[in-house]
Structures are given as structure tokens and as C-alpha cells.
Amino acid sequence: MKKILNEYAYSSLAGVVLGLVLLIWPSLSGKLLCYGLALAFLAYGIYRIVCYFIRDAVLTMLRRDLAVGLIAIAVGVFIFARPELLVSLLPVLFGLLLVVGAMSEVQTAFDMKRMEDGRWYFSLIAAAVLAGLGLVILANPFSTALVLMRFTGAALAVEGICEFVFSILLTKRQRLYYPPEDGGDFFKQNF
């Protein structure tokens, strides 16, 4: 459970940081994000190729390390060569990310309701807001790309904050729902 919470905290923090970067530096951040993504693909590709040569032959065959590494490097090189293509797709990707995040918040709301938390509807309201923001980004009613990137940044920051807050609330409710003396046995038996 602690590992899951840490993952939520890191991903929500990353969302807030990314949102603030897009909000503050909208024209610069698109290309920087593309170059950062390209570097990440290249590094991951190199990592998987190195793993292919140092790991057990059967394991690397099953994990497809060489093929995945070569594909990741190809994607990284493509992004370096054509960052404007990815920049033009970023708002669509971020809009979809917000809609998917809203679906996750719907589950959080119903998880909280199932554990008898009276504040479950706040998560449902947040899900509706996030879905609305995502749909606005996908519809792109903005006059310039700069305004679109700023709006996208603000929406991603809101999504990150919501994810963080509701994961904390859900965790607190889980602890009340399964007290430590029961929760330890429950999680040992079921996970």
C-alpha cells in the first residue's frame, strides 16, 4: 500500500510540475518536453540493449530486450528529428490524459463511497471537472497555441493536485476501514 501511495505521490507531483512548466513557459516547454522525451526514449533503448547483452539469454528472449531497445531508440531519434510533430500532438495527448485521469477519479469516488467516506462526492465532482477540462482541450476553442498550452498546463496542475489529495483521503479511509490489527491480516491474506 505504501508503494502504491508513493507512486501516486510521484505521478501527481510530476503532473503539477509539468502543468506549471506549461503554464509559465508555454512556447519553450513544448520543444523542451519533446527533447526530454526523446532523451528518455534513447536512454531506455540503450538500457534495454545493454540488458540484452548482460542478462540471461532466456530472460532477454522473453522480455524482447533487443527489439524493444531498438524501437525505443528509433522513436527517440524520430522525436529529435521532428519535434514539431509531437508538439502539435501534445494538447491532444494531454486532453486524453485528463479524461483518463477523470475516469480514475470516478473509481476513487466509488472506492471512498464503498468504504463509507462521506466526502466521496468531492472526488466525483473533481472527476467531472477534470473530464470537462480534458474535453475543452480536445475541442481546442483557443485563439492561439500559446493560450492552449497555458490552459493545458493549468489543467494538468489541477489534475495532479486532485490526484494527490484524493489518494491521501482514500488512504486515510482505508486505514479506518481496515484498522492496523485487521488490516495487516487482510493485506497479508489478499495481496
From TrEMBL:
GO terms for cellular component: plasma membrane. The chain crosses the membrane at residues 7-26, 32-54, 66-83, 89-108, 120-139, 151-170. It holds the Pfam family DUF308. InterPro entries: Acid_resist_chaperone_HdeD, DUF308_memb. Keywords: Membrane, Transmembrane, Transmembrane helix. PANTHER family: PROTEIN HDED. This is DUF308 domain-containing protein.
